Each structure stands twice: as C-alpha cells, then as structure tokens.
Amino acid sequence: MKARMKARLGARTGNRRMEAEGRTETAEARLLKTRDKIKSTARRIRRELRSHG
Fold first, then answer.
1. Where are the domains of the chain?
2. Over the stretch 5-28, which tens digit does the pLDDT of each residue have?
C-alpha cells in the first residue's frame, strides 16, 4: 500500500525516481508473497506425500 502511494505521488509530482522506487517496492512485495505461497504449497505437498508413504 505504502509503495503504491509512493509511486502515485512520484507520478503526480513528476518525481520519476520516487515513482520508480514505489514500483520496485510493489514488485518486491509481490515476489515475496509469491515465494511464501510456493513454500507453503511445497510444505503441504511434502506433508501429504509423507502421510501416504
């Protein structure tokens, strides 16, 4: 949320550096979220495979 606001503020004020930082932070947050989902899914699959074996 904060990153998006930073990007919007940068775009409105013409501060391209701030806008780019906001976009970078947003993308990083998205990647971390995806990584957490992948790790969670991998743990679940391992658990299921152990219980069947």
1. 2-52
2. 999 999 999 999 999 999 999 999
Q: Global pTM?
A: 0.76
Sign of CA dihedral 12, 16, 21, 25: positive
pLDDT-based confidence at residue 52 (cuts at 50, 70, 90): confident
Q: Which residue has the tokens 């743990």?
A: 43
Between CA 14 and CA 19 the distance in angstroms is 8
- φ and ψ of 25, to 5 deg: -65, -40
User: If residue 29 lies in a helix (H) or strand (E), which one and from where to where?
Assistant: helix 16-52
